[in-house]
Specification:
Elements (H helix, E strand, L loop, with lengths): L1 E2 L3 H10 L11 E10 L2 E10 L2 E7 L7 E6 H9 L4 H6 L3 E5 L1 H11 L2 H12 L1 E2 L1
Parallel strand pairs: 1-7, 2-5
Antiparallel strand pairs: 2-3, 3-4, 5-6
Helix pairs in contact: 1-5
């Protein structure tokens, strides 16, 4: 099991994305900020290029196209597959800032069955 919001968790996310498949043009740099975790605020950056997670690192990325801010309980629910990130945004539970066009470019990836299967694989190996 890997610890949620650890670099090992992000490495698993990156390596597990290989099965998603290539989607030309589905590229964006995503920043996530999780508030109220047991260790305070945790930020991590995820780079998606042509539908693949090519980088995932703790901290704030220099070139984020979009930033999602979510509470720790909502981040756990998203990681477990109990809350879809985009549904959380629509419900006002997840805050969004940045380039809506960049979000729309990666939306077909993050809404695909392959992406959801990848998240299930990561969730099964994560200690939340």
């Amino acid at each position: 099991m890997v610890a949620f919001l650890s670099q090992e968790w992000l490495d698993l996310l990156r390596s597990s994305s290989a099965g998603i498949g290539v989607r030309p043009g589905a590229s964006a740099n995503l920043q996530f900020v999780v508030t109220d975790t047991p260790s305070g605020e945790v930020a991590y950056a995820v780079a998606i290029e042509d539908g693949q997670v090519v980088a995932a690192t703790l901290g704030r990325g220099d070139e984020a196209d979009v930033t999602f801010t979510e509470s720790f309980p909502d981040a756990v629910a998203i990681a477990r597959g109990e809350l879809d990130l985009h549904v959380g945004f629509m419900q006002g539970r997840v805050k969004f800032a940045g380039d809506m066009g960049a979000l729309m470019r990666v939306l077909p990836v993050t809404q695909s069955d392959a992406y959801h299967s990848m998240l299930e694989t990561v969730a099964a190996a994560t200690d939340t």
